[in-house]
Structures are given as structure tokens and as C-alpha cells.
Design a protein that fits this description.
Length: 97
């Protein structure tokens, strides 16, 4: 995970969001793969971890839309396919009737 000083000086970043450590690291990995400049603020000290639990990710402001799509794919993966609890019974057998 990159730190602020590892981003090129000509890149201006904006806050993408605060994420759980697991999501934050996965988002960082995917941003890296997509070639989107980013840095992350990771709580590191003993006392900091008490009140700051999220990993805050900052991205190149010109790539914010792409970065938001990357984050959404990690945080909100596609729902599983197949029948759901709300789907009607294909046989027409409704035990509620």
C-alpha cells in the first residue's frame, strides 16, 4: 500500500473513502492494477488504532470515477445468481397459501 510521499508531485488526490483493512488493501491492489495513482492512510500506532480503524484511500482526482467503480466492485460484489428468498416458487407450490 502506497503512502502520500510515493505519489508523483504533479498528481492531486481526493478522498475515495474509509474502508475496512481487508477492503482497503484489496482496493489498493486493484487500483495498482488499473494504473490509478493512489495513497492510503493506514492507522499504525497503538493509540491511533483505538479511535481510527478505517484505511483511508486517496486517489488521483482525474480518475475518481474509475476509482469509485473499483471500490464499489470490492465493497459491493455482484449478488449470487440463482433463486432468492423473494422469488416465486417455479412449481407454483406456495406453502404460505
Amino acid at each position: 500500500m502506497k503512502r502520500a510521499w510515493q505519489v508523483p508531485e504533479d498528481v492531486r488526490t481526493v478522498h475515495l473513502g474509509g474502508f475496512t483493512p481487508g477492503h482497503g488493501f484489496e482496493i489498493a491492489h486493484r487500483l495498482e492494477e488499473a494504473g490509478i495513482a493512489y495513497w492510503a492512510k493506514v492507522p499504525s500506532g497503538f493509540f491511533t488504532r483505538i479511535w481510527e480503524r478505517d484505511v483511508h484511500v486517496f486517489v488521483d482526482r482525474t480518475k475518481l470515477g474509475e476509482a469509485q467503480a473499483v471500490a464499489a466492485a470490492v465493497v459491493e460484489p455482484d449478488p449470487p445468481s440463482g433463486p432468492t428468498m423473494d422469488a416465486p416458487d417455479p412449481d407454483g407450490d406456495d406453502p404460505a397459501r
